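Please review this pair:
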Amino acid sequence: MSNTHENTTRDDLDAGRRNLLKMTGVGVAALSVASMAGAPAFAQTTSEWDKVFPKSEKVDHEKVSFKNRYGITLVGDLYLPKNRNAGALPAIVVSGPFGAVKEQSSGLYAQTMAERGFVTIAFDPSYTGESSGEPRNVASPDINTEDFSAAVDFIGLRPEVDRERIGVIGVCGWGGMALNAVAVDKRVKAVVASTMYDMTRVMSKGYNDSVTLEQRTQALEQMSRQRWADAEKGTPAYQPPYNVLKGGEAQFLVDYHDYYSTPRGYHKRAVNSGNAWTQTTPLSFMNMPILSYIKEISPRPVLFIHGENAHSRYFSETAFAAAAEPKELMIIPGASHTDLYDKVDVIPFDKLQSFFDQHLSV
């Protein structure tokens, strides 16, 4: 029997790709042979202001870089209150959503919290944006959890920062990563998960845990054989461009398109803005539940923030139920999942400030 991927029938591959779509939950079109394009180019760091939100006159901005425990260079935007005193300030590390870059939602959160008196950093996760790592646009529940702790390493060494007063904000898929990081990183004093996704849950079980064992097996079969195809070519195949609408999509996919593929939130370096993850990215997520030890965040506080009408609300509700005290779940009336990406009149920044003021106090 041949040991190449060519013995897999087209029907089997198509079935695997359809099931993979259900499991990854990232709002892409069905995978296709045409998606096996070349790898995206590595993004060189730029010093220009290329965020999707306006620059605040109330903060100082600095482009920074640092390495994680695996030797990958992460690039971030450091924000400092312009009218800061000489003393060391509390700090907040921010990242997310899954497939976004620091020029989008996480940067907005970081800049806004810097306006409110915190030293903040928004960073690009490994293999994405301006951060290093090859191949491009691949994710890992382990490495991306480590990325948060590497940012804590970096910001805790800044002279402007009191390293005993560091918090974390994770948005969307990086909300789950943030919780996972804080469970093991005892230096972090408080954590917020905003419009959270548990990426290991959605990739392994699909939305609302709807994927069957048969579908899961077919998806794993397809990705397993894709590894041979990638090995033969020497480069990974990529999924089709994300957030391209063809008509008839669910409302939450339309919402993703409205953020990532319009002037509202489009950024050329974002995976979700017409780029894509590698086809085999879900493999490491599908048997590694990241929130197994969420109770070990306690006695440090956790704040979950989610929209009332978000398709993803159940992720926060389940995580909240599993977490130990002190914990709080804040539901924003009428809000969708993506409303908490950038709508400053919806994101409860006053609550974020009071939460961190309380738990990052001297």
